[in-house]
Amino acid sequence: MKTTKIILLKDIPNLGVVGDVVDVKPGYANNYLLKEGRAIRGTEENLARIEEIREEQAKIRAENEQAAQALADVLNETQLELKAKAGEGGKLFGSVTVRDIIDALQQQGINVDKRKILLEEPIRELGEKEITVRTFPEIEAQLKVNVVPE
Fold it and tell me: Which of 37, 63, 98, 116 has its CA 20 to 30 A from that of 80?
């Protein structure tokens, strides 16, 4: 079985972490890892600079982690109020989804990727909810969302 040696530039679940040298199938390397900028070829030249690559990636990761922590701090202090049509007993005539939450955050000047909002199912009733937002693999924030009747 033919494999290609690559150096990971980003953490890849079930494959490795930044700086790891791994063997993968050529198609996976060419069509995904290299194309998406998640890895570089494991040439002798690149293998010689592997420590330099690890240091660069560690710096980038630290900067990203600081930005994620700052965003988490802002989200922890944020309380959204979303209006929705509701019937008797506080049941909504629809639901509040991740899209609604993102739109409300953007109105406050806060940009969050929809994949970071961990809403298991849409909100279907009035009231206050705490929603987890994972801004970094190890950093989570609790966003308060209050759904009120229109």
Answer: 63
Q: Are 145 and 108 in contact (CB under 8 A)?
A: no
Is the domain covering 69-149 a CATH 3.10.430.100 domain?
yes
The pLDDT value recorded for residue 125 is 92
Give residue 129's pLDDT. 93
Domain boundaries defined on the chain: 4-48, 69-149
Class of 4-48 in CATH: alpha beta
pTM (2 decimals)? 0.70
Query: Which segments in the chain show pLDDT lower than 50?
Result: none
Measured distance CA(38)–CA(112) in Å, rounded? 22
- Give just the sign of the alpha carbon dihedral 98, 99, 104, 105: positive
